[in-house]
């Protein structure tokens, strides 16, 4: 550590006193002993995962040759070992993060293995959804008892798989509403983790995994009115983007702010997808009845996500002037208007294309104002994507299409050249 290396020089120059130097050494010594080595944590968790998977493979290879009693004992053996390891960690209390996370991860996997093995040995009926639900419900207490953030991440993956299994891959299965209750079960740990280590690696993983999980799970409510789900997804991505701009996430680097990235990319991807005619040609033929809306889960998903996004949009506007409003932020509100317009008029698709172009131009302008090459090229990339989309679904001649591509290419060159020249002039 550089400050510790500079202590002799600071002492010789009489900048600090010997007592101050001793206090600095004591401070860094206590800091090093109280914080876990990240590599030790990672290798500990990987070790627990490999040991758990290795035991399962060894048992699976010799499984058919074992008696039922032996199989039952072996099914519970990993569970017993995991409980002993976790019990030791709870009793000692002074074990490090690596031990705690490794033991909890091993026990979490052992719970799943034991459920699967016992079900197989005694031919207990049930599908993958039931297995995942049982596993996650038994594994959730580990998140709080140990406490373990790795188990929390595995739990989020497990409930996402559970929602996808029932919502996407099971024939005529009702929407897995239980997923939302299971997700709420992890939020308390998420909040506590943020309070303890707001910039730690585990909280960053949660910032990415939770919005990704909700994005996957929202599609499982599709039943009777799929078109309404576009409103729900626009509002969900809008809510993510606005949540990522709140004060307690705004200070995070962009790569650590999964809400903002997923919200922005999701909104742009949906806008580009709906810049084609296919959706609007289908929508204008729809005639939603009140009875159909009341019985459609997509309607309630759209209302709830829109209310959440509107509340966050209000909080977003309170903290900054309207002139600094990001063009993606109100996209969900604009889409609700375009959706209603699209029920009666095909002009909605034209407005979507204009809005994408406007977002691209405003991002380019913002990048030039901030002297930010990344933002500038992001705006140009969005405009290029729009031009490419129109290349495939319009009747423009190849000459005009070629001119459009040349224009965008020149735009890339001139914008970057202008910004680099501006930087160079400021350096002198």
Automatic annotation (TrEMBL):
Coiled coil: none
Domain DUF2157, residue spans: 10-150
Pfam families, per the entry: DUF2157 (PF09925)
Residue ranges crossing the lipid bilayer per the database entry: 39-60, 72-91, 103-122, 177-194, 201-222, 228-249, 261-279, 299-317, 324-341, 373-392, 398-420
UniProt keywords, alphabetically: Membrane, Transmembrane, Transmembrane helix
Organism domain of life: Bacteria
Name of this chain's protein: DUF2157 domain-containing protein
Native species: Adhaeribacter swui
